[in-house]
Amino acid sequence: MAALFPGLTSGTHSMLRMLRGLAAALAAAVLAMASANAQQAGDGRQTAVVLSLDGIVGPASADYLIRGLAAAREQNAAVVVLRIDTPGGLDASMRDIIRAILASPVPVIAYVAPNGSRAASAGTYILYASHLAAMAPATNLGAATPISLGGNPARPAEPPRKKPSAEGEESPPPSSPKDPSESKAINDAVAYIRSLAALRGRNADWAEQAVRAAASLSAGEARAQNVIDLIADDLPDLMEKADGRSVKVGNTEVVLHTKGLALLEREPDWRTRVLGVITNPNLALILLMVGVYGLIFEFMSPGALYPGVIGAICLLVGLYALSALPLTYAGAALALLGAVLMVAEIFTPSLGALGIAGAVSFILGALMLVDTDMPAYEVSLPLVAGVAVASLGMTFLIARLALRSRRAPIVSGVEALLGQRVKVLSWAGAQGYVSAAGERWRATGPDGLAAGDSVVIESAQGLTLHVRAEAGAPPRKEPA
Questions:
Q1: 165 domain residue, yes or no
Q2: Is the separation of the CB atoms in 378 and 281 below 8 Å?
Q3: Same domain, 383 and 457
């Protein structure tokens, strides 16, 4: 290098050696990362990722399962085991989970476990959508009637009763037609679960009965009627029995090799737990109210900072929580209108009219906010009543303060000087100067006043005061 470039100094040589060392270290790091990725991919093919659907199907569980399936795909896992114990949940969240399962390149084994668990309502749909369905002993599934139709699964249809006719014959009474919205929801649910059953080759007729008549099955009955594929006592037994089975992933038939797979439990992280807490409609409503009142207090006392900052954070978190729930546009619009009217009460002297209208609008919006009859996602009536009382109390407090300030005497400006007793500084004829509020004012008034006399301010015109002699003061005699 020195022969080719004789002008290079020893410092330049040192810099070149350092650059060569950095390049070598960078190449070694790249090779190490590639080796680690290859090793992780190789280990992933020997791993079964275990996800848990425990509790109500909602936005938090949907987010957790969707991210879990994506992580299993990135890790190149052999299978995903979805352990289910759920009473059902929101239709929108259920469909999000099913879409993720159908799009997953990693086979999903739905497993109703442990003993005593259930896959009711939305859990039945998820079980039918999975590539392989399994149950533990002493578990059940079914009762898949859409709960939004009335809050309870529909009862099995009873045969029509017969009544005697005039000729002595018996004829069935005419049956009342179903509500159109109920029939629409049931038919949609039936078509959906039958399409999942056809995709996985499972019993579609029983699936329809689970929707129309809220039918349920135990693990043994489900296996006998081709609703599930196998019964396993625990996860190792499930891995043993699922080995060698063929499932359809996309358009490809895949043979499962699950024997000896390492089980990798993926527990819900902090994001899932936080989302599960804040997506409670009652908590979201409380956060919205804290946000609204925090902004109200900040507007009433500018510069306080803490009410405004806390209110803004609570308001944004509450709006995020509501965005994850199945909202009705009318309820959200009414709640937003109510919040705006309550804030406008501060700036508009309506004496409570805007505040009361805002409280009523907010309450109606809260009652219609969430479009579901799931008990876990219903807005609590006592909470709504408490919010109503608090809102009306705040409105009456603001109206009372406004009336009190309106009736209070004026304490600033020229009007505050009216009726005050002041001293004459100098006087000549019908005008002079007086001392009022620590200032020297031009004044007009009766003749005969002199410096030191007490006068009362009657009116003000611009910067000139009109005064009169104080009542009871002895008349001053002019010198002869």
A1: no
A2: yes
A3: no
- Placement of tokens 């807005």 in the chain: 379
Are residues 217 and 141 in contact, defined by beta-carbon separation less than 8 angstroms? Answer: yes
Beta pairing partners, 359:
none
Collect the ranges in the chain with pLDDT lower than 50. Answer: 1-5, 7-8, 34, 36-43, 148-177, 475, 477-480
Q: Residue 194 is part of which domain span? A: 37-153+181-269
Look at residue 2 and tell me if it is in a domain: no
- The runs of H, that is alpha helices, within 52-152 are 59-74, 91-103, 122-129
Cα separation, 86 vs 194, whole angstroms: 21
| Calpha distance 455→327 (Å, rounded) | 70
CA-CA distance, 224 to 401, in Å (whole number)? 74
315 and 204 within one domain = no
Under 8 Å between Cβ of 173 and 400: no
Q: Are residues 227 and 105 located together in one domain of the fold? A: yes
**Which pLDDT belongs to residue 400?**
76
- Outline where 324-380 has alpha helix (H): 329-347, 353-367
Cβ(86)–Cβ(122) under 8 Å? Answer: yes
Pair (217, 115) in one structural domain: yes
* Per-residue model confidence (pLDDT) at position 224: 95
User: Which residues, at least 6 apart from 133, have a Cβ–Cβ distance to it below 8 Å?
Assistant: 109, 110, 127, 200, 202, 227, 228, 229
pLDDT tens, position by position, 321-378: 877 777 787 888 888 888 778 777 767 766 677 878 887 888 888 888 776 666 666 7
